[in-house]
Backbone:
């Protein structure tokens, strides 16, 4: 349901909301638009962690799986899910897959410059979360105590 522009403008934050609507409309509501897919990927369970690990260097698939299991508070990532996440990140140009023609073939994954830039941006978000950890925890405790 589309909110009319004049109705948005009448709201207290109408200019901000109108700007947001215009910004999202510029992507033609395409579900595969980078603005939607990359933001969704940032919030999925594994992609951001994969990018953070790859910011430390180049790794093979099995090594990535072990590192994710060691670092993540989630259950271990399946081989299939890791492959799907890596392929999606490769499709977006954030990860490069290098195949060395040996027997068996060696496949290494590393960040591209675009992926490294993305990690640098999201590291700012991680720093913000870390700086506000105690405040967030206190807000959660208060919310639960109030019957939230």
Residues:
């Amino acid at each position: 349901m589309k909110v009319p522009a004049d109705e948005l403008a009448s709201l207290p934050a109408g200019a901000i909301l109108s700007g947001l609507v215009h910004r999202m409309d510029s992507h033609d509501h395409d579900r595969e638009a980078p603005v939607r897919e990359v933001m969704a990927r940032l919030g999925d369970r594994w992609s951001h962690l994969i990018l953070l690990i790859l910011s430390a260097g180049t790794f093979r698939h099995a090594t990535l799986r072990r590192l994710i299991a060691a670092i993540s508070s989630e259950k271990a990532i399946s081989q299939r899910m890791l492959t799907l996440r890596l392929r999606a990140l490769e499709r977006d140009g954030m990860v490069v897959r290098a195949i060395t023609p040996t027997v068996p073939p060696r496949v290494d994954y590393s960040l591209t410059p675009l992926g490294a830039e993305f990690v640098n941006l999201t590291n700012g978000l991680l720093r913000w979360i870390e700086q506000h950890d105690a405040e967030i925890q206190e807000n959660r405790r208060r919310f639960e105590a109030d019957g939230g």
Summary: The chain has a mean pLDDT of 87. The chain has two domains: 1-29, 31-145. The longest strand covers residues 95-100. The helical segments are 5-10, 14-25, 34-43, 47-54, 61-71, 79-91, 113-131, 133-145.
